[in-house]
Write a structure and sequence with these properties.
Blueprint (H helix, E strand, L loop, with lengths): L1 H29 L9 E3 L7 E12 L2 E11 L21 E15 L2 E14 L17 E18 L2 E15 L2 E3 L2 E5 L5 E14 L4 E12 L3
Parallel strand pairs: 1-9
Antiparallel strand pairs: 2-3, 2-11, 3-4, 4-5, 5-6, 6-7, 7-10, 8-9, 10-11
Length: 228
């Protein structure tokens, strides 16, 4: 009788231990820390693939060039999130804008071809509520800074009529900083540290002052990844 009671007590003890262990595991699992997810990297397509597309202007004032515009596509960002209005893609609805500042480093002229080289910096901005307007170049530099980088480029202006020419350009951009941003509840980061991309553009240039010279270029183009 004593052995039976002792066996029953041992079985009861085992059940209590097992039950306590299960409860402990359940409590522990419910209190595991939630690990923060890293921002999703966008605008860093594999080598030779398009990372960015853009539209903008470049204002030349003698030896200085001020660029501004907006991004029309970023690899990794859903197309329907690039603008606040799906039917009206313009600076007024673009969530991503940029500004650049550069200075002339070289200039060559061959008959109707004008070749301009410049170097400077570019900053990209994110705006949940777009506020850019081409009538106000400074408006493209508002919002949250999400990326900065150094660049140099060459622009070729093929003069077709007095003070008017076809513009083609090629440049290189090396990213120097990036800051995460949140879009539609998802955390993103534009590019990688030291990311290198090449970009090209085409458009039209109009000279407003022959002496200075002053001119405005309207451009559109894209950038391809070149690796880190």
């Amino acid at each position: 009788m004593i052995n039976q009671n002792r066996g029953a007590a041992q079985r009861t003890l085992k059940l209590i231990v097992v039950g306590t262990f299960i409860i402990f595991i359940a409590i522990l699992s419910n209190h595991q820390p939630i690990l923060a997810q890293s921002p999703q990297v966008v605008g860093a397509a594999p080598a030779a693939q398009t990372s960015l597309e853009y539209v903008g202007k470049i204002d030349q004032a003698a030896l200085s060039f001020n660029g501004y515009g907006y991004l029309t596509a970023i690899s990794g960002v859903p197309a329907n999130l690039m603008f606040t209005d799906l039917l009206n893609h313009s600076e007024a609805t673009a969530r991503f804008t940029y500004v650049s500042s550069a200075h002339l480093t070289a200039r060559s002229v061959l008959e109707t071809l004008f070749v301009l080289n410049a170097a400077g910096t570019t900053t990209v901005y994110y705006n949940d509520k777009p506020q850019a307007d081409f009538k106000d170049p400074a408006s493209f530099g508002k919002g949250v800074v999400i990326a900065t980088g150094d660049e140099h480029w060459q622009t070729v202006v093929n003069v077709q009529a007095p003070d008017t020419g076809i513009v083609t350009g090629l440049g290189e951009y090396t990213q120097t900083s990036e800051t995460p941003f949140t879009l539609n509840g998802v955390d993103y980061v534009l590019g990688n540290p030291n990311q290198f991309i090449r970009y090209t553009f085409t458009g039209e240039g109009k000279r407003s002052d022959k002496v200075a010279p002053n001119s405005t270029l309207i451009i559109a183009g894209y950038a391809t990844a070149g690796g880190n």
